[in-house]
């Protein structure tokens, strides 16, 4: 149940970058949370995407506009008015087989997705760079007013946080200029992501409601509601209520999420990938399975990071955080002492390994590679192409035989490594028997995506999707067309 709740909880992150990301995004977002009471099996939030055309019959009695493929873009053209509050939360945008999607649901879903991208952007600089590049290609840029609001918000965030941003800058030795560029980059990345979310949001909500309707028709409703009842008993549920979510919103999100999950899983079951399918892909792409000489290594890592990274701060940063009153000279001396201690620890472990101690046991007990140690893999790094290894490794382990430990510690920016060569494979082409298990999950995922896409295309053809009169009037006015009499 905790995972169900945490999947929709994106508030209360402690890291300073996340705090800043959440604060800055507010400067670019005009969303507001709504507390709209609706039927748990009827409301909607977005998780599934599709750009399939919409086809349905017109219901003259309701005087609503049936959504066709060419009308969906017109709805998207009016989305800024939705976001900026041109219509009340209770207003209906459209109905999906009689089930309404309201302005409030749209806003709430938009806010949820924007909060999710905030969390991702704060933790993933690669995603930031990707979005910034996409924005440049598509001509998306921050206006001067948006930049001004970003810097104003950053200043307020710094005050509200009690100086957490300045402390972060000091800890990573960054200047105000670096920080200002970070603010602009984060703001632009968020604007690009938000733009893309908005372009697809109504499509997603329509698809989601279609999936929920199909799930209810299959009898998944009671089970989904039971998931909600169990989730209510969890402390995370109460925490989210105290953070601003209403109980109705949480109920709807949990029930709908479970309905969609069940229905998507049901559709995915129709996807089939045979060994013959995999063999065909393998034969067509055989050149891609060529590899150079392969080495399988095991290692013991003793951490002594020289540089700050998202995964681990440097020794200097860690010591400064633990002992902030040290002078620069004292800090330099302390770094040297700790580095010498870590090197000596590595030398002692190397001596034990060279004398025949069980390498796997040493790795599982003493390695600073926490994930490897927790998994009890004996430090195994898996079979890797020699050309892909760090130069520090490749040049040195090439001189030893399988089963041997390299006779010296190998330093890197991460620390000190004790390395054992456990297997060697000559260059060649990976055989089908081995490649098959790598290809299967990729082809299966592709087949499942296609099955879902095809299912939604067909369902849209038979599902009546109708615009409300009020929203049709907004779309007509936005497109400059004369209103229907």
Describe what you observe in this structure.
With 485 residues, the chain is of the alpha+beta class. The protein folds into two domains: 2-270 and 453-479, no CATH class; 293-426, Chitinase A, domain 3 (Roll). 58% of the residues lie in helices and 10% in strands. The protein is built from 20 helices and ten strands. The chain has helices at residues 2-6, 16-28, 72-77, 79-83, 103-123, 125-137, 144-160, 164-171, 176-217, 221-232, 235-242, 247-268, 275-284, 315-322, 328-354, 359-366, 370-375, 391-397, 432-462, 469-479; strands spanning 65-66, 92-96, 99-102, 290-291, 294-303, 380-385, 410-412, 415-425, 428-429, 465-467. The strands form three sheets. The protein has a four-stranded antiparallel sheet. It has a four-stranded antiparallel sheet with strand order 6-5-8-7, with helices on both faces. A two-stranded antiparallel sheet has the order 4-9. Helix 9 crosses helix 12. 31% of the residues are buried.
Number of domains: 2
Q: Tell how many strands the DSSP assignment holds.
A: 10
- Strand order in space, largest sheet: 1-10-2-3
| End-to-end separation | 52 Å
SSE string, helix = H, strand = E? HHEHHEEHHHHHHHHHEEHHHHEHEEEHEH
Topology (elements, then pairings):
Layout: H1 2-6, H2 16-28, E1 65-66, H3 72-77, H4 79-83, E2 92-96, E3 99-102, H5 103-123, H6 125-137, H7 144-160, H8 164-171, H9 176-217, H10 221-232, H11 235-242, H12 247-268, H13 275-284, E4 290-291, E5 294-303, H14 315-322, H15 328-354, H16 359-366, H17 370-375, E6 380-385, H18 391-397, E7 410-412, E8 415-425, E9 428-429, H19 432-462, E10 465-467, H20 469-479
Antiparallel strand pairs: 1-10, 2-3, 2-10, 4-9, 5-6, 5-8, 7-8
Helix pairs in contact: 2-5, 2-7, 2-9, 5-9, 6-9, 7-9, 9-12, 10-12, 13-19, 14-15
